Amino acid sequence: MFQGAKDRRIGFLLLFCALSISAGCATPKPAEVIWPLPPEEPKIKFVKSITGSRDVEKQTFWKQVGELIVGAQPSARLAKPYAVHMDREGRLLVTDSGWASVLVFDTKNQQFTLIGLEGPGVLAKPMGVTTDAAGRIYVTDVVQNRAVVYDHSGNFLLAMGEKGRFDQPVGIAVNDALKRVYIADTKKHKVSVFDADEGKFLFEIGGRGVEDGLFNWPTNIAVDKDGKLFVMDTFNFRVQVFDADGKFQAKFGGVGTALGHFAKPKGIALDSEGHVYVVDAAFSNIQIFDQQGQLLLFFGGFGSRPGQLWLPAGMAIDEDDQIYVADQYNHRINIYQYMGEKYKAKVVGSGVEGKK
């Protein structure tokens, strides 16, 4: 009468041993992916990729046991990510047109959630995403032609853009000091500026053209720590720089296949040292420029191996100089590290350098 219970105990012990052995198995350490190659000092290194909810959700022992018995539950996987943003609390926000929502990968609390599924804040085709110092979440929607603002938890607060204001809003950035929201309108070839608290329209920058201060299908934008606005003027194949009030400051880039030129520029972001990063979907790489527009380095390259890209789109850089790139056709977010002064100070402070 005890044979069944005995068999179950034996089966459980065998399962426990299998899990223990699996956890302790030595696997070859993957080769480090860095740019530039030795003997040059490395400046960028590939960290990892995120492809779905399983990459952040907590995996407990009992969850692993359950998956071995009944099979793994399906993961919420990225379909076609466009924009990406890391907030101040370690939450990776990704707009994904395949999901028609914002995917939230909470890397610190190991949780996965979605924003924009229902109610007045429902999304149709989200594109740009960012947050402000108060934790509010801003999302552009190119089908609904509006920008939606949520609180930290994803509850709807307000929408920006009365009827006729937008015609394909894509990139979005916040100036916390001035409480302004900048939104790139691709089809109107303008950047619209709003009050962050009330959502009131303030003024606009640009218009269609090739002259300084005008745009030809602008897509993504970024604001630096001094409040300067960097606009990816996609089909003028250049970056344009403005002050916080929209006055033209500088430009760099140009169409072509040579280094420092662009073919299909998309994402743009800045690190803590003021370097400007530009994603080029056609080159499947990221080029890094100084504030004068001089090319410093490029990284990435076409492919599906670690660190490579296939039609990348938006990007973001967090306070620790980690770089996040929406790798669209590989259905993932690639994460890199800029190994600058902030990174070096952190490594020295942690004592890692002394252990080498």
Describe the protein:
The longest helix has 22 residues, at 3-24. The radius of gyration is 23 Å and the shape is globular. With 356 residues, it is mainly beta. The protein contains four helices and 25 strands. It starts with a helix and ends with a helix. The strands form six sheets. Strands 1-2-25-24-23 form a five-stranded antiparallel β-sheet, with no helix packed on it. A four-stranded antiparallel β-sheet has the order 3-4-5-6, with no helix packed on it. Residues 10-24 and 60-68 have low confidence and may be disordered. A hairpin with an 8-residue loop joins strand 1 and strand 2 (44-50). The chain has helices at residues 3-24, 61-70, 341-350, 352-355, and strands at residues 34-35, 44-50, 81-86, 91-96, 101-106, 111-115, 126-131, 137-141, 146-150, 156-160, 169-175, 180-185, 190-195, 201-206, 218-223, 229-233, 238-242, 248-253, 265-270, 276-280, 285-289, 295-300, 312-317, 322-327, 332-338.
Give me a quick take on this structure.
By secondary structure, this protein is mainly β. It has helices spanning 3-24, 61-70, 341-350, 352-355, and strands at residues 34-35, 44-50, 81-86, 91-96, 101-106, 111-115, 126-131, 137-141, 146-150, 156-160, 169-175, 180-185, 190-195, 201-206, 218-223, 229-233, 238-242, 248-253, 265-270, 276-280, 285-289, 295-300, 312-317, 322-327, 332-338. It has a five-stranded antiparallel sheet with strand order 1-2-25-24-23, with no helix packed on it. It has a four-stranded antiparallel sheet with strand order 3-4-5-6, with no helix packed on it. The chain has a four-stranded antiparallel sheet with strand order 7-8-9-10, with no helix packed on it.
